Amino acid sequence: MASPFSSCKQKHAFLSSLLLFLPLLLLISSSVADLSFNFYGSSCPGAEFIVRNTVRSASSSDPSVLGKLLRLVFHDCFVQGCDASVLVRGNSTERSDPGNASLGGFDVIESAKNVLEIFCPGIVSCADILVLAARDAVEALGGPVVAIPTGRRDGTVSAAENVRPNIIDTDFTVDKMINIFASKGLSVQDLVVLSGAHTVGAAHCNTFNSRFTRDPRGNFELIDASLDNSYAQTLLNKCSSSMDPTTTVVNNDPETSSTFDNQYYKNLLAHKGLFQTDSALMEDDRTRKIVEILANDEESFLERWTESFMKMSVIGVRVGEEGEIRRSCSSVN
């Protein structure tokens, strides 16, 4: 089987992130300590390779799927932990909540699961596949190779009522965001670093239209002074011409939307944050200082991303006899 690393540099980055995370595993919780970096070493040795290939194959025909996979793992881990509960179809499930209506990438996870069920039936959890796929999406976009411990099990409960109290809305204040992150065991630095996911992906016009208002003649006007005027006009030109702002999308990062880099933070310094939650990071001393550091040091961002992403990937994990290993990611057994 071919090596999952395409270069010596990638292999070095992977080993470095693994060494960084080892002490973190021992400090977080006993459940997390049950995860391991070679969990499928004997039961399904090609598991991570299969997930990586599935992600690469899907992105070759639809590059936008990479950003969708990254967003998908956030919406899973922040609600009931990283247990793949967001993947479950059905009335009143997390996936049915309007807050998750624009999520994508589900087919990629299911495709990887189908292949794994052929080679290793009943072995690899959807929760692990989802985290690995998001990790691989970042790598495919030019980001760091992150060593991810595996051994998560899938949740058996998925309830829409759990979504809104746990995900970040686009009009949240810094205090609200800090509180939600703290409830997940994540710091202020983690908040700013993980917000860097907005360096890729796209958003529907209706997710940031509160930054504008309509005048009596029906024309849009900027009401958010924290937004650069020329950037605001670009957004207006893109969205006001659409008959349906729920289907028109704009890139989260207007400069390098298909590259995982620190351009997001440079955009914030230029007052070009797409969401109010982005701009808010520049209005609070606790977060602005971190934004400035990351905007001026891409290597620092990538190193901190590795640490923060790994911390997020172990929120509320189920291990041992908890949960189950689903046969299909879209339904509980």
UniProtKB/TrEMBL annotation:
Keyword Disulfide bond tagged: yes
Keywords: Calcium, Disulfide bond, Heme, Hydrogen peroxide, Iron, Metal-binding, Oxidoreductase, Peroxidase, Secreted, Signal
Keyword check for Amino-acid biosynthesis: no
InterPro entries in UniProt: Haem_peroxidase (IPR002016), Haem_peroxidase_sf (IPR010255), Peroxidase_pln (IPR000823), Peroxidases_heam-ligand_BS (IPR019793), Secretory_peroxidase (IPR033905)
Biological process, per Gene Ontology: hydrogen peroxide catabolic process; response to oxidative stress; response to stress
PANTHER family linked: PEROXIDASE 6 (PTHR31517:SF17), PTHR31517
Protein name, per record: Peroxidase
